[in-house]
């Protein structure tokens, strides 16, 4: 059984940092692309950052480029998202996704993939 679990969310003030982690169990992520999506209240889910299976190619949404850094440790089956200079507009539930239908170049998904339950990030002004 595949499980995807995010951690690291919380409440911070604008300008502070958080590091999200996502660990996948029951699945070898060595050759699978992964990504972070977020959904703010009343808005659609959007791709924040995605990474190729080898870590050599990354995608960032324009709104987070230069502030967020995605990375992965395949030996630990873990994906990370370092979020610096957080803004109130970054407030959302952040989801990790892993699977055969994650497209790292445009940070989109289709069909069946494995999603985590989400972790809340709240940035106060």
Structure description:
Helices cover 0% and strands 50% of the residues. By secondary structure, the chain is an all-beta fold. The strands form 3 sheets. Strands 2, 4, 5, 6, 9, 12 and 13 form a 7-stranded mixed beta sheet that branches. The protein starts with a strand and ends with a strand. The model has no long low-confidence stretch (mean pLDDT 95).
Number of strands: 13
Number of helices: 0
Radius of gyration: 13 Å
Q: Structural class of the secondary structure composition?
A: mainly beta
Percent helix range:
under 10%
Separation, N- and C-terminal Cα atoms: 41 Å
Low-confidence stretches: none
N-to-C order of helices and strands: EEEEEEEEEEEEE
β-strand percent reads: over 45%
User: Overall 3D geometry?
Assistant: globular
Major beta-sheet overview:
7 strands, mixed
Task: Give keywords.
125 residues, mainly beta, seven-stranded mixed sheet, four-stranded antiparallel sheet
Brief synopsis:
With 125 residues, this protein is mainly β. Helices cover 0% and strands 50% of the residues.
Helix/strand layout:
Blueprint: E1 3-7, E2 10-13, E3 18-25, E4 34-39, E5 46-51, E6 58-60, E7 68-73, E8 78-83, E9 92-98, E10 102-103, E11 108-109, E12 114-115, E13 119-124
